[in-house]
Sequence to fold (674 residues):
Amino acid sequence: MTAPRTLFEKIWDRHVIARGADDAALLWVDRHFVHEGSHHAFGKLADRGLAVAQPALTFGVADHYVPTRAGQAPGGAIARMIATLEDNAARHGFALFGVGDPRQGIVHVTGPEQGLTLPGMIVVCGDSHTSGHGALGAFAFGIGATDVAHVLATQTIWQRRPKTMRLTIDGRPTPGVGAKDMALNWIATLGADGARGHAIEYDGSAVRALSVEGRLTLCNLSIEGGARCGMVAPDETTLDWLHGRAYAPQGEHWDRAVAQWRALATDPAAMFDREVALDAGELAPIVTWGTSPEEALPITACLPDPARVKDPARAGTIAASLDYMDLKAGRPIADTPVDQVFIGSCTNARIEDLRVAAAVLAGRRARVPGLVSPGSSRIKLQAEQEGLDRIFTEAGLEWANAGCSMCVGMNGDVVAPGKRCASTTNRNFRGRQGPGARTHLMSPAMVAAAAVTGTLTDCRPLLEGRSV
Amino acid sequence: MAGWSRHEGLAVGLPLAGIDTDQLLPARFMATPRSAGYGRFLLHDLRHDADGAPRPDFPLNDPAATGASILIARRNFGGGSSREGAVYALIDAGFRAVIGPSFGDIFAANAVNNGLLPARVDEATAERLIAAAPLALRVDLAARRLEAMGLSIGFELDDQSREKLINGWDDIDLTLKHGEAIERHAAARRDAAPWLWPAVATETGH
Ligand code: SF4
Fold:
């Protein structure tokens, strides 16, 4: 009998090749995703004359720099970044979902969607939101360029073993409240570094009830609470979602895989280093008001007042955030006028996200301009087959191509200085969507509601009587 | 990468919490080749006003901080994006160590990979150092101690990171020594789960 283990421990143990100082280990990597931003790592490889060890386990995606608006042609540095990725894919012989490929999309959207991320895997990528892939029951985490080069050269990575944390979310959320609200809520509760050094396993009835799309959103935001990774044990929802995906196992392999995946669940007697429990039943939709994802509030609440905060450092941080965001202490956050909206990013641009935003927008006009960028080319096609694109364009929003787009503004789609954007993305950092831009994070339903009213507003009344 | 075990330098305080990697290196500079140098991008949008002029009240622009090689920050330094360029910006601007109560995990790993020390101290210690900055400070990696203001202060750093910083180890060389074990592991994994090597890797769309 082996001791009871958690999902995380089972995956970790299965991947250890060698042990290092204290709790470090050399781990095998099952899947490595690269994108245009991986250029530093390929440069390091070239400097040392090394080859990619496992091209068949390496997948490239063009997402960070690709133009997403109709008629936009890549130029200058952007074209160079895309061409460099294409050159590296050709030189090293790994598959590339490049511009124009039907599988192209944001790496954390298209990877799972193609069945490239599977339960029990270790998945890495030179991008912090790799944590999202854990929704399928994988240990998935972002790494920097030196580690990307290491994985390219060896298909392994050195990691210190994180502590484990179970985040149990029970309760039945009201319609209009979902995975994004659960995530922003726990980050606001524990802080942007509240889960630092921990591997989170999400569990509880509210998590089990989420679709894989919702779980991808929840796990994606794990990094915003400082966690090493977030994961959900595979269940029937996972298996149904994965079955038949392009790179998922088939036939006899599928049956063997499923047997292995079922055994991954945390043993009932396993212990976590830390347990946190939250109730989703009491949640209102959450919006961020400041410049860190932890600076988030229910839409029904009032802004904090630094004058009422005892700790001077904390008061100073709140005052600086309010100042950057041009908001008044103590006032209700609802009814704050916005200049524009953005629906997109690896956090919230999957088909369900587009459907719920369309449910709010159907038959209505947006009072402010906005961009809708689906998470992948496949989702774009599906949304068009469902007629969602017409709902967005008839509301006055721009329907764009798939890519990171205005989440990070690397492709030139930025929010102008001083402008306020309601956004389905994951970071409200200063200047994240462009120098001087003011970002409020929220769910797709909430962004759609902000578009309809031109202000930060509770999406729930706007969803009444509408099926999602 | 050259290893180091002692460093003596000028420490500058950055009394801000949650300095994320988007602040350390704004995204628009990320396409720059490393050879062009990243130092001038460090904290660019906090250091400069909208017209690109240096903000005189920003600590790093203080003439007394010229030549600083140690940065003292508040909690959650380097959270956010995995961009290693954030570390390049610090290194290329002359920094060897960042001292603070907590660091983003990925940032800390990137820092160590590039010879930059992320030294953890408690919040009260960070505040004391910030209040006294700019100040002369000595770092002893082997002993995991800082010396400043006549005090000797312990800092936290895991063993693996300390070894890497002191020896200037390159992980790839270390790992390739495990070549046989890696091959054995890969073969066993492929036996147990052949679907992890997708047969359709060269597919061109459907
Ligand atoms: S959508 Fe945004 S957060 Fe996601 S990978 Fe792209 S830039 Fe990063």
